[in-house]
Amino acid sequence: MLDVKNITEAAMGFDPTFSPHFYVFQLVHVEIKGEHDVEVVEIYSSETNKWVLKESGWKPHWAFFCGRYSTFFNGSLHFPTAFDKVASVDTGGQSWRVTVVRPGEDENYDHVFGLLVGHSQGRLLYMDADCWKNVFSIFVLEDYGRDEWTFRQSISMMDLFGPPNSPRGTDYRVASFHPDGDLVFIYDRSRERLLSYDMNRREGHVICDPGEVSWPTWFLPYVPLYSKALVSPNVD
User: Which of 15, 136, 150, 230 fits 155 for a cystine, CB–CB 3.0-4.6 Å?
Assistant: First the structure.
């Protein structure tokens, strides 16, 4: 079988606490005999206005994008891969990292979906979902310098919001973590509403009814940049 190469995912990284510049990451996958791997990563920097191409430093079969959401944190892009792993690469393509969220799990299982990596309050967070049971599991990387994820809690959407209004039973989709609070945002496809879950109080709330969102349309976080103070037009 011929090798098939394509850019399957692209993500922009911007964090004003790390740098006033933004970065774009493009993951170039190669498919060989049905197996997918990231072969190279192309990285653009707005500081240099140039692209750099780096050969993947991840082990074969350890890094192919498996979720809908990645996050830019501590100068690196982090994204979920298969078998509950998180792959990371920095803006220079020098540091390559893979952390295992659930050590010892059977790598042949595929019962979890809706993978998400995010960050909140200076920590990386990971979420997976057993969509058949509508249960979300949250893990946290307390110490960024170590590779040990800690299980935080599980969320039963059935207990919080009742069964989905759909015979498929897989209509709760995680949207994002709040960057500064212990909140998770979840979209209820069956009722077309956006929900929030407070991880400390273990309470769920309905935020609004945005209407139908064609999945996998992404809910993207907004990161403002206040590079210059806003001056009133009435001030000389």
Answer: 136
